[in-house]
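Here is one chain, start to finish.
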Amino acid sequence: MRGPALLAAVVASFGAWHAVALAEESACANSAGAPPIVAQGQPVATQKPADVPRVELAARLAAAGATATDQYERMRENAARELAGRPDGSGAVSAEELRAADDAIARQVRIDQGALPPPGFAALARQPGRPQIAGLDIVYLNPLGDPARANAWQNIIAHQTEGPPGSARREAGDQFAHPTKRGVTIWVETDGTVYWSTAENVIPTHGEGGDRNDNKYIDNTKTYHTVNKTNSIGVEFIGNYPDVAKPVTPEQVRAWLLLVPFLQERYGIPPDRIYAHNWIDFKDQRYCEGCELAALARKLGYCPSGLR
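Its structure:
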């Protein structure tokens, strides 16, 4: 089972996973490296992205003959910042960064004109800036840089927070302002909107150091004091307030099953390195934090191209 059919089956089985806390042995089911596609019956977002890459905006201006305008110059400079992993207006732009932006803008113009094909999923996942994945509404408070210069992320941890619906943007903004405070790199709203809050070489404070060693959910001999904040990128799902046992929304599930292969491809993370917070740390006994999400992601079985 590959691509759309696998993703449809995983999403359709979500209800059955509410009662499941144990992790299955996971393997790279998607050995052909097909991009994650929301299959028939699972709607794909068709609205324009909330956060358009600055390279694309600059390319539109260039194609319209507006390269001599102040608007184009500002967008060109922000495109250079974007590709360097910096927010709009952040710091001076070097000549080298501008050359990289000019190359990217020219390439985007050719893509828009149909002279070049758009990048495939694997290439897109490793791009700097604001990569946009079909069906995923993602907002980059901090753009991405060169993945080779990112922190050496080896694991993905699914968290759930007692923040009320509608609070993901605020939480991500607080994380952006204080990158290493307690929190995570990525926040997911109940409507499925994803907020990338910090630079990918910054380590927020999350997890309890991998202190679980009872093998209740997984074999903790592989995680005890080794799966922690320094090597694990955290994804936080908003919305289980005031009832902590409230499951994530279907929109969050769909976003997760598009986001997690993107993270796996970008950082070369196999499916058996996706964890629920409750699997690796002693957490709230009222519910199993992140367990359904991590189990679904492992079941999806996406295999990064570098591991095939």
